[in-house]
Write a structure and sequence with these properties.
about 325 residues; alpha/beta; five-stranded mixed beta sheet; elongated; binds zinc ion
Length: about 325
């Protein structure tokens, strides 16, 4: 590698975070630009290219100084850099890598799905550091994930690998998941899923709990009360742990990870999550894949940026 600088892009539906790093992964600069999703998101890549070129000029960098640009996209991306629709950006199917390389006068570009990229970041610099076989699960509004096997990110034929939020974990579900199926992992293990579970359990009985007095309680409220020993909140948390453990047991049986890293908003509840999921995980996982270490993510929102850098350095 001749260059000395890497750019990372964490592309979201409202803003694109862009970072300039050294080849060793040291952060030099970080800024944001607006994501314009109108007209099928046609100006998103030109806007990013312009922002990076301006930064290069400001720092006196030529294209020979740049090792490459890594981009995390909110949608499936295959190993050739083809995006298969990114609804939040207005994008259809096209080759992101080729398009962006043209805009950047031939500087190498690598793209991947944002959850996969965040997983790569956590394994490189965060909670899964130094681990060649890891699953990183993001427990946020939905459930996303990335699978690192033998040090490599699993992408799949159409960039759909690691969509663990849609593993089937419950037969008796009457509400549909965002994907159209019923009983998906993220219907229970996401932050929204945890609140939905809580509301169901509250409707099953009239036991007293401070949750009843809160109009719009969050998943954090439930775990905070469970930590304080509120019996109803504990029951909800146990139910949550049952689903979390079951979904992760299925993932672990497929990928045989050494480490599973829990990230996303729900993971701020901390190590209580690991205690809650253990019984169910042990019950459902294949014996030969049982020896898994659970860790909490440490990079937060920066995981996507570090992963984007790592895409280029790999
Ligand atoms: Zn689903």
């Amino acid at each position: 590698m001749a260059g000395t600088r890497v750019f990372g892009v964490d592309l979201g539906g409202t803003t694109a975070k862009i970072g300039m790093f050294t080849g060793e992964g040291e952060k030099l600069d970080l800024w944001e630009i607006k994501t314009h999703t109108d007209n099928g998101g046609e100006s998103i890549l030109p806007d990013i290219a312009e922002a990076i070129k301006a930064k290069m000029a400001e720092n006196g960098l030529t294209k020979e100084d740049v090792i490459g640009i890594g981009i995390g996209v909110p949608g499936p991306v295959d190993a050739n850099g083809v995006v298969y629709r990114a609804v939040n950006l207005g994008w259809g199917v096209f080759n992101l890598k080729e398009t962006m390389e043209k805009l950047m006068d031939g500087i190498r570009v690598e793209g991947n799905n944002d959850a996969n990229v965040a997983a790569l970041g956590e394994v490189w610099k965060g909670g899964g550091q130094g681990c060649e076989d890891a699953i990183v699960v993001t427990l946020g509004t939905g459930v996303g994930g990335g699978i690192i096997s033998g040090g490599k990110l699993l992408t799949g034929a159409n960039g759909g690998a690691g969509e663990i939020g849609h593993i089937h974990v419950e037969d008796d579900e009457t509400e549909a998941c965002n994907c159209g199926n019923y009983g998906c992992f993220e219907e229970y293990a996401s932050a929204t899923g945890a609140v939905r579970l809580a509301k169901r359990i509250l409707a099953e009985n009239s036991d007293d709990t401070p949750l009843r007095g809160m109009e719009n309680f969050t998943c954090k409220d439930v775990f905070d009360l469970a930590k304080d020993g509120d019996p109803v909140a504990c029951r909800i948390a146990e139910r949550y742990g049952y689903y979390l453990g079951k979904g992760l047991a299925i993932c672990a049986t497929v990928a045989n990870p050494k480490v599973i890293v829990l990230g996303g908003g729900v993971s701020r509840a901390g190590s209580i999550l690991i205690d809650l999921l253990k019984d169910s995980f042990d019950k459902y996982v294949f014996r030969g894949c049982r020896d898994v270490e659970f860790k909490l993510a440490t990079l937060g929102n920066d995981a996507g940026m570090y992963g984007a850098i790592k895409l280029v350095l790999d």
